[in-house]
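User: Hi! I'm working on a homework problem where we have to compare a predicted structure to a textbook description. Could you give me the structure for the chain below?
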Amino acid sequence: MGEQPIYTTRAHVFQIDPTTKKNWVPASKQAVTVSYFYDSTRNSYRIISVDGSKVIINSTITPNMTFTKTSQKFGQWADSRANTVFGLGFASEQQLAKFSEKFQEVKEAAKLARDKSQDKVDALSNHSQESGQETPSSNQASSINGTDDEKIFHVEPEAAVLQTENEHLKSSVEQSNTNAKKWETELQTLRENNARLVDALQESSANVESWKKQLGACKEESDTLREKIAQLEVQCNEADQEKQQNSQLSVRVQELETELHEKEQELENLRKQAEIIPQLMAECESITAKLQTAETKNKELAGRVEGLQLDIDDSQQKQGNMKGELKKFMDLLDGKIDELHEFRQGLSKLGVDN
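Assistant: Happy to help. Predicted structure tokens:
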């Protein structure tokens, strides 16, 4: 019947990096089919996975192998014949648990098959040794103790046994030759698969190097972009500062325009006041003339006061009345004179200021 699949699942396939022996290298770009195969002719089990036309797993299970769960969805096993470590990443914990259970079952079955094969080899070896030891003793006994007819009688059964054993050995040898041819064919197939795996590994290594170069180029480009971003941020900060300075300058210009407008209004007021100055000067001269006239009148009034003082001596009755009136008049006159003096001083200051 040849090899038949006994269990199939899907997983992401990885292999250990042959250089570092630490990092995992993806053997498939996506989840692929991973199957257990049973070879009834050889009584052996294999795990096989193919990505397109590329064989990425061809691992014969032996009793010494161990499948280890390294995380909730990842497991691995070492294949000494392929000189590598395979890793499988599953979509769920249930798939990992089922694959691990199947690995243990196949491992036990491979162990039983090995034990049975060893028992058969031991039995054939022991039987051959016993046959080789019994034949000389039987011939010797029959040649010593019997006649020629007895010898023939004893030899014929022994010859039949030997012939049967020889035929059995011939069939075993033929079977062994057949198995040897099959093993040679299988060995050739394994060599071809190993060559493909080596090519795939080299291709993966080349891809890794290419990816590393691309990653380095991306890092350099990222660093360049970061530097450009930093420069743009600095330029943006400078632009923000310039905007702030421009806004401050705009505010200052508005303030200066307001001050200029106020100064222009003050200048216009001063011009209007300068136009009024001649009128004020004329008024000042008029007031000065009036003040002189008032002083003249004051002198006349002073003469009159003296005359009145003389008249007071003449009449005491009139003197009392006249004193009161004169006092009032003098107070009023003094006030007027003070006002005239203050007004004159004000005019003098105004003329000096202008």
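For your comparison, note the following. Residues 148-314 form the longest helix (167 residues). The CA atoms of residues 46 and 60 lie 4 Å apart. Good luck with the assignment!
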